[in-house]
Amino acid sequence: MDVTCETMSQIATYKPLSIVLLLLLIISFFGIPMLIFLIKKIISNSLYHINTRIILITHCIFVIAHLINRILLHASDLYRFLIIYPNKNSGCDILLNSTNCLFYRLIFNYGIWFSGTTAPCIIIERFIATRYPTSYHKDRKIGVILTIVQFFGTVGILSMTYFGYVFDAGRYYCMTARPHRDMINSVPLITVNVLQISSFLGLFLLKKYNLSLKSSSSGGELTKRYQIEETLRSLRTLKLPIKTMFISQMIFTTITFYYQRYASEINQEFFFAFSEAIVLLPEYSIIFVFTFVKIENRINIDGITSLKQGMDIDPDTYFKQYKNHW
């Protein structure tokens, strides 16, 4: 038997790969309606600034796109391995076309990198809100601008991921990650790691700064204090989801970086199975929804009361502010 055909046969009959694909397919299937539910919840919640909502909703949409692409890919691979291959004489009968693989996995990969750049956008948006507390409530453009920058930034990251993509005669499995890649292929991994670490630190610093503003502006303008409360609420709600994204992205980027260097020493069946398993977006989608809703519900119990107490100041303060405008 031809070496290529034999290798394809080994991959098709490798049970751990089929199990991983089936589990991820099931998780992705449940993740989609949960994210749709979260999108509706975010849209209807006016306590989040419109710019924050735009960023979060776009994030959910691209994670959903990733999950849909993942379901189609994994279902196709399982069909090849479990249905087509047993009825064929050779593994070469189920080889894939490299050109088709490029497009089959495009949305899949785009969703990975787009989701990895969401946390920095949220931190930047909340930083701008903190920087301009008295006028930011009127802004409706920052969310759109940040999303556009994120969109094209992700295109750039994805371009580096596909740099040096080889259009060979046949593929065992549709996957961009390959051993001995050029250094430029590692730039996306390093970039996302830096962005995730910066976002994690930014979350802490932004919360600390807004708490200090809150304590020092008890008699300040109503719009300014409301913006501070809105930022603190957003950061509190998104703290755990951002941590979840941080952990999942760090696991993915770190292991992928290592595997790109040493994958030639690992058998291909295990490499494909493990490479799929470390892309944690399906698991993240479910954890993200659960943590977001849980924390939001907890905040809703005491958030409105706390906000009213924070706004409850001596009416004479407003008269003084009114006089100052004359």
Automatic annotation (TrEMBL):
Where is the protein found, in the record's own terms? Answer: Membrane
InterPro entries linked:
7TM_GPCR_serpentine_rcpt_Srab (IPR019408), Nematode_rcpt-like_srab (IPR053286)
Q: Which domain of life, per UniProt?
A: Eukaryota
Q: Which GO terms describe its cellular component?
A: membrane
What keywords is this UniProt entry annotated with? Membrane, Transmembrane, Transmembrane helix
Q: What is its main location?
A: membrane
Record field: transmembrane: 17-38, 50-68, 103-124, 144-167, 187-206, 271-293
Q: How does it sit in the membrane?
A: Multi-pass membrane protein
Q: What's the protein called, per UniProt? A: Uncharacterized protein
What's the source species for this entry? Caenorhabditis angaria
